[in-house]
Write a structure and sequence with these properties.
The protein is α/β, with parallel strands linked by helices and 113 residues long. The chain is built from 5 helices and 4 strands. Strands 1-2 form a two-stranded parallel ribbon. The protein has a two-stranded parallel ribbon with strand order 3-4. Strand 3, helix 4 and strand 4 form a beta-alpha-beta unit. The chain is elongated. The N and C termini lie far apart (47 Å). Keywords: Transferase. This is Cytidyltransferase-related domain protein. It comes from mine drainage metagenome. GO terms for molecular function: transferase activity.
Length: 113
C-alpha cells in the first residue's frame, strides 16, 4: 500500500505559505495513481501519523529538511521500526504544486494582455 501524508501546519511554513489549503492538497495527492490513500498528519507531532499507520518505509522528498537517521531512531523509539529513504529530484519534474500554480498564473497573465 502506498500512503502519503502531505505537509501540514508548521512543516509547510518552512517552504513558505502554501497556495492550496491542506485538505485541497490532500485531495490532489489522493488522486495520484501511485497513491492508495493520502492522509493529513498531525500539525504538532509528525510521528503521530507514523505510529497510527505503522509504515515499513518512509520516503522523504529531495527538498525536505528532515534527517533520515533521526526519523528512523525516533520511529524505533516509538515502537515502529522503519526504513527511511530520500527520493532524489526528477529532472523536468512539472508536478510540483508551486510549478503548476506558477504556470497557471503565467498563462493567465499572458492571456490578459
Amino acid at each position: 500500500w502506498s500512503w502519503l501524508s502531505p505537509a501540514t501546519g508548521r512543516p509547510v511554513g518552512v517552504k513558505g505559505e502554501p497556495y492550496l489549503p491542506e485538505e485541497d492538497r490532500r485531495i490532489m495527492v489522493d488522486a495520484l495513481k501511485p497513491v492508495d490513500r493520502a492522509v493529513l498528519g498531525s500539525t504538532t507531532d509528525i510521528y503521530v501519523t507514523v505510529v497510527e499507520l505503522r509504515p515499513q518505509v518512509i520516503a522523504l522528498g529531495f527538498n525536505q529538511h528532515w534527517d533520515e537517521g533521526e526519523i528512523a531512531r525516533e520511529c524505533a523509539r516509538r515502537g515502529v521500526p522503519v526504513r527511511v529513504v530520500r527520493i532524489g529530484p526528477r529532472p523536468g519534474e512539472e508536478l510540483a504544486s508551486r510549478r503548476i500554480v506558477d504556470r497557471i498564473l503565467q498563462r493567465a497573465s499572458e492571456s490578459a494582455r
